[in-house]
Design a protein that fits this description.
single chain, mainly alpha, Rossmann fold, 5-stranded parallel beta sheet, 31 helices
Length: 696
């Protein structure tokens, strides 16, 4: 029994006890007691007990009301049985209810039954892990079989556990509270990306769920493309952005992760032989050289062909445009059901790009009918969501996954889609995700708009001083800083810091983050001496409160050393950067992104010190690791190449510098866009080299 339920029972016992004591006058009358002392004392006692009893009854009513409200939120927002109760794992016999893609329909297959389960290589490990309290995460491509594998594992090992499966992020807080109260429970989070970030699943909430007696597990799934996006931090992130990104990564690091490949292994295909009596499995095995069994069963390839064929003249080009618009709305960060009006507004650009009226597009009504029509798997390209704002629909995640893998996690969607999405936001979570995506891509004007929407929505939904509201406000101030609107950013950081100091205290991590952000702005407005003092003060507190090797401490250390460089204290900056880098290497490892950050910053100080040969050697070694760990087109790899080009220019090797600057500029234009600050920096750097060569 959880603490809150124990407290409610204790309050109820007190109320009953007081009620019994309050019946003292009736007892006196029943026994015909006539002593004035007894009667007088009894009257005083009854009056006192009545007053106290009313206070406790009111307290019990409040606790019960909160419990009832929480249960209503839970039952409205989670998977329940027909009678409204939360199910046990063993009571869910249809895996589709837990996010498993419906299977293809074949006339000779058992009607309505899910396909037989083809065992996977990770089954034994996953089921063994479920025996322990903790967090189990299955990662893989869309339709790799993640949800089905997880479903079979919990059914086999935890059939008597209460199953708590929230439909969306809004139900997550109530779901977590109920999970904490249960002694045996499974918290099921399909498509984990919807439950991360501000107000979502965090390391602290995981600790609450897994602490204490009982057996509680979190079981989640995550697409590989989303994992890449979530664990790929912005290369020039500030303290807040790095902190939020780190919180997401730390949440993922709490999980025991199992990876499922789309194509089945030879051993898994051998296991499929025992399931060949199911004609759907038999059909899938015949396609196993090209498609994964789960992929084929979910009709992923078939739906891709439907969209591609839909673009043909006179077929369903408008429907294909609706689907393309929905895919890019999702890629832009609109994680909730996208309103139909949004998709309709955005689809025109896709239709025109393919040929417009020359394609003889069908009517809008016909296009929607085609897009939402279930295919053989009863899976549709676009699926309506009951009670979603704006008659919202979701897009088949296989299509999103395919686009993300083809274009990369940082690839941008066209600006008209962003503008349309911003005009149709109904939820603060969608605003935050759109803003974070735009910020990551350097589209700071759009990020500002989206963060402002999120801030306004959270002020109305929560309160002006709620922690999530303050995070949205802080994110807005960060983007204002990146836009060069430093006075607005500074004013925002001061206001946020004042609230956090009052509510959270001087040494709370969020308060320290605000101080560090403010110090960064002070540096940019030219108040470097104040900035250095503030960074140093935050570093001292973080070292004392969090420890010298905590990630936040390392962030402060790096930021302080960077200010030392700007102040011209190059020797001291070199010493501090080198010391911080040594800790990163020892604690995080040679290939951790923050270690690579540290190497870049240290080499950059060497460049400013005029130690160009050392700087060149360090940048070349760093680039070798960047290429191997991050890839040639990762934004941080391009930062290292840009800095190497600066070193080459400083050494007078202008032709080599020009080649590097041109290569970096070409990649930044393609990956980040023309207006990204890093692209503009590359244009400037190339121009300086050309001028030095006497070129144009």
């Amino acid at each position: 029994m959880g603490y809150s339920r124990q407290r409610e029972h204790r309050v109820l016992i007190i109320v009953i006890t007081l009620a019994v004591l309050g019946a003292g006058s009736a007892v006196i009358a029943a026994f015909k007691i006539s002593s004035p002392w007894v009667i007088g004392g009894g009257v005083v006692m009854v009056a006192a007990v009545a007053a106290v009893s009313e206070l406790w009854r009111e307290r019990y009513r409040r606790i019960a009301a909160r419990r009832d409200e929480s249960m209503l939120k839970l039952e409205d927002g989670c998977l329940v049985l027909p009678d409204g109760r939360l199910p046990k794992v063993g009571q869910i016999d249809d895996p589709v209810r837990l996010g498993v893609h419906p299977a293809i329909f074949l006339s000779m297959a058992p009607d309505g039954d899910p396909p037989l389960y083809v065992p996977r290589d990770v089954d034994e490990q996953v089921r063994g892990q479920l025996a322990n309290t903790g967090f189990v995460l299955l990662v893989g491509d869309s339709t790799a079989g993640k949800s089905r594998t997880a479903y079979e594992a919990v059914r086999a090992t935890l059939p008597e556990h209460v199953l708590i499966a929230p439909h969306d992020r809004t139900a997550l807080p109530a779901a977590i509270e109920y999970t904490v109260r249960e002694s045996r429970a499974v918290l099921w989070l399909s498509d984990l990306e919807h439950y991360l970030g501000t107000g979502g699943l965090t390391r602290e909430r995981i600790a609450r769920i897994t602490a204490g007696k009982g057996h509680r597990v979190i079981v989640a799934t995550l697409r590989s493309a989303e994992q890449a996006r979530l664990t790929n931090p912005s290369e020039d992130a500030d303290d807040t952005t790095r902190s939020v990104g780190r919180q997401v990564r730390e949440t993922l690091e709490q999980a025991r992760t199992f990876r499922l490949e789309r194509l089945f292994t030879a051993g898994e295909l051998e296991g499929a032989v025992a399931c060949l009596q199911d004609p759907r499995i038999s059909s899938a095995v015949r396609q196993a050289a090209d498609f994964g069994i789960a992929e084929y069963l979910a009709s992923g390839p078939e739906l891709v062909r439907d969209v591609e064929d839909g673009w043909d003249v006179g077929v369903n080009p408008r429907g294909a445009a609706l689907v393309s618009a929905a895919i890019d709305c999702r890629r832009a960060g609109y994680t909730g059901p996208a309103p139909r009006a949004l998709i309709e507004e955005a689809h025109f650009a896709y239709l025109e790009a393919k040929g417009g009226e020359r394609l003889r597009p069908e009517s809008l009504q016909e296009a929607w009918a085609w897009a939402i029509r279930p295919r053989r798997a009863t899976t549709a390209l676009l699926s309506p969501v009951a009670n979603a704002p704006g008659a919202g629909v979701t897009v088949f995640d296989y299509l999103v996954d395919r686009r993300q893998k083809t274009e990369g996690p940082l690839a941008q969607v066209d600006e008209p889609v962003i503008l349309a999405a911003l005009a149709h936001i109904h939820r603060s979570e969608d605003a935050e995700q759109i803003a974070a995506t735009a910020e990551r891509q350097g589209r700071f004007r759009h990020a500002e708009t989206a963060y402002r929407i999120a801030w306004n929505l959270r002020q109305r939904e929560l309160s002006e001083e709620h922690p999530d509201t303050l995070i949205s406000w802080n994110n807005l101030a960060v983007v204002l800083r990146r836009l060069g609107r430093l006075e607005e950013a500074e004013a925002g950081f001061w206001d946020i810091l004042a609230i956090r100091r009052r509510i959270l205290g001087e040494e709370h991590p969020h308060t320290l983050t605000s101080r560090n952000d403010l110090a960064g702005v002070l540096k940019e407005v030219g108040r470097s001496i104040e900035s250095e003092a503030e960074h140093r003060a935050v570093l001292e507190v973080r070292r004392r409160v969090l420890g010298r090797e905590h990630p936040d401490t390392l962030i402060s250390w790096n930021d302080w050393a960077s200010v030392l460089k700007d102040l011209g204290r190059l020797e001291q900056a070199e010493v501090e950067h080198r010391a911080e880098l040594e800790v990163c290497r020892r604690v995080l490892g040679e290939e951790h992104l923050w270690t690579l950050f540290g190497r870049n910053n240290w080499a950059n100080v060497l460049r400013h010190l005029g130690r160009l040969e050392e700087a060149e050697a360090e940048f070349r070694d760093l680039l070798e690791v960047d290429h191997r760990v991050l890839g040639e087109e990762h934004p941080f790899t391009l930062i290292s190449r840009n800095n190497l080009a600066l070193v080459l220019g400083g050494m007078g090797r202008l032709e080599e510098a020009e080649v590097e600057h041109r290569a970096v500029l070409e990649l930044r234009r393609r990956i980040l866009g023309e207006e990204h600050p890093h692209t503009l920096t590359s244009i400037s750097n190339l121009a300086l080299v050309l001028r030095a060569q006497g070129g144009s």
